[in-house]
Specification:
Length: 196
């Protein structure tokens, strides 16, 4: 279902908006990795998924899974729930399992939508924690131009180079804070670029 839906949506997005992808070669072709994106609108997962050729297992807010139909729909697209505003250990365990099995994990490190497309909210620690505990790279992604009400505005997805932080089973608070800071700096640099 994931593959079929991405093919359909890729055609629709290109027709209505235009989709420009920069840095697609930065996504590892094999093995686990964290696809970490800024988050401006509720439809951000769509251009991110369309820009990356491999399937992405997105961490999504638990409210999206409340009905049985939506639960089936999002899980069939490899998404899984996370309870926001708390340390959701089950979601973290699922995320760790996904990347250790060699899949791509999609996550929005800000933890919520940020209406300011030119800036970044303070990052939550989950992305850094998963990266440290597994040793998989974090691939920063910046999406610009998404607006359901503005047609013919090109959507740009910029994919940065993978960031490696080594592996540590303990992942101390200091390590998590330091890695979060490094990821945040990379995002800030990407957001400063004129990418359309």
């Amino acid at each position: 279902m994931y593959k079929a839906l991405t093919i359909i949506l890729r055609g629709i997005i290109r027709l209505l908006y235009g989709l420009r992808v920069e840095g697609a070669e930065n996504v590892p072709q094999t093995g686990g990795a964290i696809i970490a994106s800024n988050h401006v609108t509720m439809v951000d997962p769509v251009p991110v998924a369309l820009a990356v050729k491999r399937p992405i297992h997105f961490m999504a807010k638990a409210e999206l899974f409340e009905s049985s139909i939506l639960d089936w729909f999002f899980r069939s697209l490899y998404a899984f729930p996370v309870k926001r505003g708390m340390a959701d250990r089950e979601a973290i365990r699922t995320a760790l399992k996904i990347v250790r099995e060699g899949h791509l994990l999609g996550i929005f490190p800000e933890g919520t939508r940020n209406p300011d497309a030119e800036a970044l909210l303070p990052l939550q620690g989950g992305t850094a924690l998963i990266a440290i505990k597994t040793g998989v790279p974090v691939v920063p992604v910046v999406v610009k131009g998404v607006s359901p009400l503005r047609f013919r505005r090109a959507i740009t997805v910029q994919i940065g180079k993978p960031m490696y932080f080594g592996e540590s089973r303990r992942a101390t608070k200091e390590e998590v804070n330091q890695v979060s800071l490094e990821i945040s700096k990379q995002f800030a640099e990407m957001l400063r670029r004129n990418i359309g």
